[in-house]
Amino acid sequence: METLSFEFPAGQPPRGRTLVGCVGSGDLEVLIEPGQAGKLTIKVQTSVNGAEQRWQHLFARMFDGQTPPAMAIDIHDFGATPGVVRLRLEQGFEEIGHD
Amino acid sequence: MVNTFLAHDLLWGMTPEQLPVDAPAWVSESISAGQPVVVRRALSAPDHIAVGVRGRLREQRFATVMSIDVISRRVKPEDLCHVSIDRDVPAVHALNQLRPMLDDCGWVWGVSGSAGFELASGFQALHARSDLDLILRAPQPLDRLKAQALVRILDTAACQVDMQLQTPFGAIALREWAGPARRVLLKNAREACLVIDPWEQAA
């Protein structure tokens, strides 16, 4: 079990909060809450050790060329593939966009 | 031979010689010891099947393919519902506790994950903190209210129980289907995607 932290430049905080995903192997749970203006923080708790680089790449690619909202994202990962991680994050962003 | 193997099936017959040369030593040890491999949800050549090898440690999982010709034995999750083992761990207590209720639910159910592996092979895989992984064959839609009722049953168990619903188009987590999410994660051999109706063919 490993806990990782990441930070990216961001815009304004979103209004809503959301919880998407599921506890269970090959999946992850993503909690998104409003963060501090200008800052996107991500905390990842993962059952797979030694994957910091992979997470960093995945986030960097997702937020590349855009200013994401200032969110505080809390991830509980149970060995999800990068594809599943991306789907869950997109699902979460969509949910907070709806509020 | 028609490829009728399903994710979570356990297969015997693989030998260390069939492993890729770069496979870690523990993979070869697991296979040599006579452990079965687990069918994975992934595409493979018609005469091969995507499988995973388990090691002793949680992070020891190795993905490879197995030639269908060498399969000597197959055990499906539903073959394990009524296999009992004498092990004092929460997952086994949970299984014993849930068995009559699941038998009454009207759907075919099965045991997967480490419990299924141990029940089928006798190789110790369960420990005190193991969850219980179950599958439910759901060829027809199981509505969200029924899913919630099932979750309530599973939540009476002695440990965390994760059940996957196997629809004709892939697998979803019962817990997510029972929850408020409009779209749920469907996994099949080709991809993982978010869908509104897991019983509907994707466009």
Automatic annotation (TrEMBL), chain A:
Annotated positions of the O-(phosphoribosyl dephospho-coenzyme A)serine modification: 25
Keywords from the UniProt entry: Cytoplasm, Phosphoprotein
UniProt key word Phosphoprotein: yes
Processing and modification events after translation: Covalently binds the prosthetic group of malonate decarboxylase.
Entry's localization field: Cytoplasm
GO CC annotation terms, alphabetical: cytoplasm
Annotated signal sequence range: none
A Pfam match: ACP
GO molecular function terms attached to this record: acyl carrier activity
Predominant subcellular localization, coarse grouping: cytoplasm
Family per similarity comment: Belongs to the MdcC family.
Function, as annotated: Subunit of malonate decarboxylase, it is an acyl carrier protein to which acetyl and malonyl thioester residues are bound via a 2'-(5''-phosphoribosyl)-3'-dephospho-CoA prosthetic group and turn over during the catalytic mechanism.
Protein name: Malonate decarboxylase acyl carrier protein
Organism this protein belongs to: Pseudomonas mandelii PD30
TrEMBL record, chain B:
MF (Gene Ontology): nucleotidyltransferase activity
Location of the Phosphoribosyl-dephospho-CoA transferase MdcG N-terminal domain: 7-77
Ranges for domain Phosphoribosyl-dephospho-CoA transferase MdcG C-terminal: 87-197
Keywords from the UniProt entry: Nucleotidyltransferase, Transferase
Keyword Transcription recorded: no
Family matches, as InterPro entries: Holo-ACP_synthase, MdcG_C, MdcG_N
Keyword Nucleotidyltransferase (UniProt): yes
Signal peptide span: none
Protein name: Phosphoribosyl-dephospho-CoA transferase
Organism: Pseudomonas migulae
